[in-house]
Specification:
With about 240 residues, the protein is an alpha/beta fold. The protein contains eight helices and twelve strands. Helix 6 (about 160-170) crosses helix 8 (about 195-210).
Length: about 240
């Protein structure tokens, strides 16, 4: 695919320059915005493929921007913020952000996050052209119509909760899902306790990651939630 158009929303000039220089050296196209209002106008008028968003803007909180964009667009949003508390990450991800990178950051890590978002764009595009009843990610295959799961052509028997968890992660492959979002989607409530969710996730992993050290499929974001890695994605590099 052609290089995507990236919208960089950052009011700190040195950091904005670092990001845009990094994008330029990699051949990416980009637009910039220094305020929340300008970012919304840019997003509407230029329809970027990916948004890199700082939360601490002078006129609007970044979480509010995420909510506004999510009301009409599903573009990947990568948050780049000095806010490092788990609560800040959870709020941004629950609002609809796809990823969260804490300042200070390395340009290599930023580029890795961009590559993850690009894979999501390709996956979403391919999904429109393929039979949506079958999901493939490396050695993992889910047949939604039949309710069956295979790893390397071996059928894996899951409990109903394990299957629902796997399908939720698969349908959001590459995106961090918070504990709250998972609890709401699987049980319809936030009251089901997180330790129980961890137990279900551990049993699911034992079944689909027979050699976890070599074949990670589900990545833990400590204190935040989980992400299904996409085929070829390095769990240690993001």
């Amino acid at each position: 695919m052609n290089k995507p158009l990236i919208l960089v929303v950052e009011d700190d000039k040195p950091i904005r320059k670092l990001i845009t220089t990094t994008l330029e050296t990699q051949g990416y196209k980009y637009h910039t915005a220094e305020t929340g209002e300008a970012s919304i106008l840019e997003a509407v008028s230029h329809q970027p493929d990916i948004m890199i968003l700082d939360l601490g803007l002078p006129d609007m909180d970044g979480v509010d921007i995420i909510k506004k964009v999510r009301s009409w667009s599903n573009i990947p949003i990568i948050v780049v913020s000095a806010r490092s508390e788990d609560r800040d990450k959870i709020d941004a991800l629950d609002a609809g952000a796809d990823d969260y990178l804490t300042k200070p950051f390395s340009v290599e890590e930023l580029l890795a996050r961009l590559r993850v978002s690009l894979r999501r764009i390709r996956y979403d595009s391919d999904k429109l052209q393929k039979d949506a009843s079958v999901f493939k990610n490396g050695n993992l295959t889910i047949d939604y119509a039949a309710g069956c799961v295979w790893m390397e052509q071996e059928e894996i028997h899951l409990t109903p909760i394990e299957y629902k968890l796997l399908c939720l992660l698969a349908k959001n492959a590459g995106k961090v899902l918070t504990h709250n979002l998972i609890l709401k989607e699987i049980w319809g409530t936030h009251t089901y306790d997180i330790p129980a969710l961890r137990v279900f996730m551990a049993t699911l992993r034992k079944k689909i990651e027979k050699s976890p050290a070599q074949s990670k499929i589900i990545q833990t974001h400590i204190g935040v939630g989980y992400r299904m890695l996409q085929a070829g994605e390095d769990s240690k590099g993001i």
